[in-house]
Design goal:
Layout (H helix, E strand, L loop, with lengths): L8 H26 L1 H35 L5 H18 L3 H11 L4 H19 L40 E2 L2 E2 L2
Antiparallel strand pairs: 1-2
Helix pairs in contact: 1-2, 2-3, 2-4, 3-4
Length: about 180
């Protein structure tokens, strides 16, 4: 069975099972190396750091989004930044070291441009597999542009040019009376 996007359901199930197993394994390994209390303290510290970074970077992303809207331009980069900040903050607040590393990758300002390029690569690859043209969203060639051979110009001619005028008294339950 496949999900709507073509991703096999088995891959999703494996990820939903494998990621928590890897997280627990890493927690056990770190706990054995540094002890139980330092491991718990480290997880709490990472969650607090995640909340702080989410608040700081989220407000920056919101201001950039607002500036783009006020400037009258499409905020594509700003939306990607905001999405990465949101996902990164949530991953940092989840307990686990693997999710924290990925969350930091998405949230820290100097790694986020690289994360945006990686996400953009996967989105572009996904769109091209779906059959959506790369120039569709503001590129040089748009469907319906002048000279597009798939557009047939025409004129709408109404069948009946007479109009029926109905007064509010003639309407009963939304239907005109005969």
């Amino acid at each position: 069975m496949r999900l709507r996007g073509g991703l096999p359901l088995a891959v999703l199930v494996v990820l939903l099972v494998a990621v928590p197993i890897v997280e627990v394994y890493l927690l056990i390994q770190v706990g054995q190396r540094i002890g139980l209390l330092p491991t718990i303290a480290l997880l709490v510290l990472e969650a607090v750091l995640g909340g702080w970074l989410l608040r700081r970077e989220g407000s920056r992303a919101w201001r950039a989004l607002d500036a783009a809207f006020r400037g009258g331009r499409m905020p594509t980069g700003e939306l990607t930044e905001a999405g990465l900040v949101l996902v990164g903050g949530v991953l940092l607040m989840l307990p686990g070291f693997l999710s924290d590393v990925i969350g930091l990758f998405f949230l820290v300002p100097f790694t986020r441009p690289f994360a945006r390029k990686v996400v953009g690569f996967f989105v572009a690859r996904r769109l091209s597999r779906s059959g959506i043209a790369p120039g569709l969203f503001g590129g040089p060639r748009r469907p319906g542009a002048q000279g597009d051979p798939s557009v047939v110009e025409g004129e709408v001619v109404p069948d009946d040019t007479s109009e029926t005028v109905v007064s509010p008294r003639e309407v009963d339950g939304g239907r005109p009376q005969a």
